[in-house]
Amino acid sequence: MADFIRPVARDGVASMDGYHSPQIDVDVRLNTNESPVPPPDAFRRAVADRAVDVAWHRYPDRAATALRMALADAHGVALAQVFAANGSNEVLQGLHLAYGGPGRSAVVFDPTYAMYAQIARTIGTTVLRGTRDAGHQLVRGDVLSLLAERQPALVHLCSPNNPTGTVDPMELVIEIVDAVSGYGGLVVVDEAYGQFASTSLAGLLAEDRPLVVSRTFSKTWAMAGARLGFLLAPTWCVAELEKVALPYHLDALKQAVGILALEYGSAMDDRVAELVGERDRVSTALSDLGVTSWPSEANFILFRPEARSGSEVWRSLLDRSVLVRDFTTMAGIEGCLRVTIGTADENDRFLQALTEILAGPLGEATDKSATEGV
Could you give the CA distance from residue 196 to residue 189 in angstroms, rounded to a whole number? Predict the structure, then answer.
């Protein structure tokens, strides 16, 4: 038998770190921007009924027509303007498969959601990096200059931005869209947290405008476990995405569950309103504690302890069985932590723990392995 030579992944993948966030057994988990409560009981019972009706021995509707029509009706667009996928990350991957890849580039504006660059590198798209100002806002002149000079095929905007919670001004997005229109680029606005914000860019969609808006069922719909996302886009973009999607990529139950969820819109609205109220309460409490935080239009708040090391505070919160997200080493938000808005009780537990930590000496640090990949 010949000597075994292990295959080596292609350049760019072999040296890449995967995307990770800690999944640790704690009492209060406020690190992944999930809904703190499940969908209504009536919804879950209805899901069980739909599962019984699924034709499990048959492939699902490849075009996901019924789900896409329900989404189109809910957002006031045409069926041909909707693309559905396994979470918004698969939507983003599809956009890179269709419009990115070797020889093309995509721009991200740091600090922002790490998966934009991760997906781009995986597909072979060159990543260009812009920056934000001290308030985590886009700088108009810098953005427009970068687009004019480098002409990226894809422009990634996240509004509200993860992990900062900031919203991109509509006037600036229009300027960005106009800029890329001149050379054939595509602006991708990720509104994963859009229902928590006061504005949406979906109203700007048009056939002659290179703008798409992605959304997800994971956050406001309390369906992170279902992995369902969608894109609102011009018909010509959806047509290209359908070419690169795997056949039958959305299973039959997921399609049925997505349609069912849209029937519980009032429950989603109530949950959003409650979380926005809790977000404002937590924001005020953080200000009273003397930490630096930034205004957020999402279901999370970015904050930086000033009297203590952010990484030490993260470990001390974990010692108290409260898990938040550690962004202390990310460029542009060094020393910062991000807390997802939970239930009133969970938020009280977080605030009490943080108060104790900031008022007294820090305890012993938690095992370093808990922060790997954060």
Answer: 15
